[in-house]
């Protein structure tokens, strides 16, 4: 064991592995504990009588400062090993705690670099940067005498964390700027400590924090607000949250602070439906139902989202919502929807009866109209249930509208029953004729359609008959309706004849109208004997010479 005696204070610096090796070098009042590897490196430079390239290079710098001509001679003498000497001086500088020897070693390295034609200076620049950081934290006012190896293993980020924990905010910020590291955590920690320790009122603290942090990137006001809330300063926390730009950070804290309505408003302002749903779910769990409805009642977005999700997920909640808002029509519609899902006729009717009861007390015209529709729907259900029992052709009527019921009956060949449904529900005549036409065409009941065509008038005109029958592929029957389309122009009727493949008939239509230009166009579309017929018609219209 080697004993050293000092007049001043002794400061022991532990190595990164936690052990204190036997070798030690010292300067001023510091005792630097070093490893064997570092001892070899520094001994190579500082050992008395050392003639290593690094020691010679360091001596050359000292001679250069004295303006001695031997400086250049010494440098040239070690030129073959100059790269090694520069590297050793750079590494030795990292082991020094004394800024004077750091500078001397780096000067030596810089002098050696200037002689070399090619040298990668990255390690030199990197060492200068690290030593500047280390010297800053080793200052007696800071008191972090860490070694170079400790700094490498600690990393700059964790060193700054240590400075933050010691409330050395200014140095931490300057080091972050120097090392090009984000400084947001430093500002947030400072602000959090401010709200915890300051005795000023909430408004003054909030103003100070916002003023200091204005324009700083990455600041989490949510973290500062949480610190304020944990300190029992809920009002200050709420004020600070107003400056948090991310609603996803604001809302959870507001909920934990029991600021339910404010949390909901912030979520709605964000426009994030997932966040709004999250708040609504939390409020529904913690608030009485009546309070929950009052909360969302004057917030249309929240109310609409609750209603939209409840249609598929919580029908009972939807019923309560409609009842709370006095929306009797919406409530009856919901019950009507449930009625259609009931397996039995009686179940359907019972649900409709309840739906009607919701509307019975109102004198509003819209409500009464809806009540009438419900009554008719109940009546229709009874008729449809009877049709399903009486008819054995596999057609299900329950759940269909009045128009669909009539159409299905006509298509299935039950015209009298369809007419009865029309009469009971006062279906307009035009609507009924359309349904009858399409039902008969779908059934391909050409005979019935031919009989209808013998009538003098049609409430829907005769053109729909032509179009529907032609679309079904019966050109012969469709053509019988062309002469009845008296409201159409000549050119339209000509085109109708052509679509039926009756060019001669189209020619006769043009001849009757004395339209020679249409006849000439028809001639280009004619073939076979039809050409002669069209020519004959054209001759009839041309003036005789």
Automatic annotation (TrEMBL):
One of its GO terms (molecular function) is actin binding. Belongs to the VPS16 family. Residues 33-126 form the Vps16 N-terminal domain. One of its GO terms (biological process) is intracellular protein transport. One of its GO terms (cellular component) is endosome. This is VCL1. Residues 219-530 form the Vps16 C-terminal domain. It holds the Pfam family Vps16_C. Gene3D superfamilies: Vps16, C-terminal region (1.10.150.780). It comes from Coccidioides immitis H538.4.
């Amino acid at each position: 064991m080697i004993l050293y005696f000092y007049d001043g204070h002794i400061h022991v610096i532990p190595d990164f592995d936690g052990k204190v090796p036997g070798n030690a070098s010292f300067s001023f009042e510091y005792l630097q504990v070093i490893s064997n590897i570092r001892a070899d490196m520094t001994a190579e430079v500082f050992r008395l009588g050392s003639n290593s390239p690094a020691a010679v290079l360091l001596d050359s710098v000292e001679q250069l400062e004295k303006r001695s001509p031997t400086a250049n001679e010494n440098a040239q003498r070690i030129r073959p090993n100059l790269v090694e000497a520069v590297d050793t001086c750079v590494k030795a500088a990292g082991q020094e705690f004394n800024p004077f020897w750091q500078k001397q070693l780096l000067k030596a390295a810089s002098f050696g670099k200037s002689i070399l034609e090619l040298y990668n200076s990255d390690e030199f620049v990197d060492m200068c940067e690290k030593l500047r950081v280390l010297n800053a934290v080793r200052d007696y006012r800071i008191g972090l005498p860490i070694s170079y190896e400790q700094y490498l293993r600690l990393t700059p980020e964790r060193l700054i964390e240590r400075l933050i924990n010691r409330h050395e905010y200014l140095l931490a910020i300057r080091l972050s700027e120097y090392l090009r590291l984000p400084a947001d955590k430093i500002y947030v920690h400072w602000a959090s400590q401010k709200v915890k320790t300051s005795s000023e009122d909430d408004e003054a603290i909030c103003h100070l924090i916002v003023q200091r942090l204005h324009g700083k990137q990455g600041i989490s006001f949510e973290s500062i607000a949480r610190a304020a809330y944990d300190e029992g300063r809920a009002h200050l926390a709420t004020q600070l949250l107003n400056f948090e730009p991310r609603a996803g950070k604001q809302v959870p804290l507001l909920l934990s602070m029991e600021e339910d309505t404010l949390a909901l408003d912030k979520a709605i302002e964000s426009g994030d439906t997932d966040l709004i749903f999250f708040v609504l779910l939390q409020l529904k769990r913690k608030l009485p139902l009546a309070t929950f409805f009052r909360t969302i009642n004057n917030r249309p977005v929240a109310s609409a989202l609750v209603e939209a999700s409840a249609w598929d997920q919580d029908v009972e909640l939807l019923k309560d919502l409609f009842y709370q808002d006095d929306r009797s029509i919406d409530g009856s519609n919901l019950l009507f929807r449930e009625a259609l899902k009931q397996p039995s006729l009686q179940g359907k009717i019972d649900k409709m009866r309840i739906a009607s009861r919701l509307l019975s007390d109102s004198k509003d015209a819209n409500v009464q109209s809806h009540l009438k529709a419900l009554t008719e729907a109940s009546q229709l259900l009874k008729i449809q249930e009877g049709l399903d029992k009486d008819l054995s052709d596999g057609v299900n009527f329950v759940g269909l509208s009045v128009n669909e019921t009539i159409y299905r009956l006509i298509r299935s060949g039950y015209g009298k029953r369809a007419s009865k449904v029309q009469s009971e529900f006062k279906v307009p005549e035009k609507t009924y004729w359309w349904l009858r036409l399409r039902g008969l065409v779908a059934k391909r009941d050409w005979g019935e359609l031919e009989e209808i065509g013998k009538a003098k008038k049609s409430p829907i005109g005769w053109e729909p008959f032509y179009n529907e029958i032609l679309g079904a592929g019966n050109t012969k029957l469709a053509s019988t309706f062309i002469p009845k389309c008296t409201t159409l122009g000549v050119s339209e009727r000509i085109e109708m004849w052509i679509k039926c493949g009756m060019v001669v008939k189209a020619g006769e239509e043009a001849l009757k109208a004395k339209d020679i230009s249409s006849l000439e166009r028809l001639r280009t579309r004619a073939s076979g004997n039809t050409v002669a017929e069209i020519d004959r018609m054209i001759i009839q219209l041309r003036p005789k010479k």
